[in-house]
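Worked Example 4.2. Consider the chain below.
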Amino acid sequence: MVRAAEKRLRIDGRRPPTADTVAAIGTVCDGAEDSGGPGPVVIEVSGSPESGWTGRLTVGLVNKWERALRRLERLPVTTIAVADGDCGGPALDVLLTADIRIAAPSVRLLPSVVDGATWPGMTLHRLAQQTSGTAAVRRAALYGTPLDAARARALHLLDEVTDDPAAAVAKAAERTAAFAGPELAIRRQLLLDARTVPFEEALGAHLAACDRVLRRSTGEAAT
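Applying the procedure from the previous section yields the following structure tokens:
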């Protein structure tokens, strides 16, 4: 599942989150946080759960899973997700945490349905936060209506749809190689907060980030 040395992770959406899956994400995050290198984390996602997939889940495990996703979402390196075929359950969860989302034309995003309703995990939150609002994803969020590649791309849930995902990943990795470290994580967090934090409250965080840049630039100019 994990090739930590390459900062790679594979998520099979057909299977529910497990303690092993949470640990796999933790291993990749440890490697990305400790390496100090600019290389991205590449996550391959595919598969959608079948009925009964929640049978062994507990609220405690779901909490650990969501916290692992949040950690992945805050890494000081670029995260690139590569999607193929149907993506639901854990595969969709992870896809929506990535900075860059690349997909094959066959991809379909499938919010999972459990006992006549969609699974109420944080994917619903991300779907609404990352699009133009609840209206854009209402049918998917409420009824599990699939989002094909074209629709997902139009909603900006995917960045690129291509017949050659491997080449697209290589280009994305090259393009983002210079962006890594705490400053990348800070910019990402400012973006994540923008939909929910009012201007007056956000201003302090933005000014603090500007101050860090100015102090660093001044220090470099003085040496």
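The longest strand covers residues 79-88. The CA atoms of residues 40 and 170 lie 10 Å apart. Compare this with Example 4.1 before moving on.
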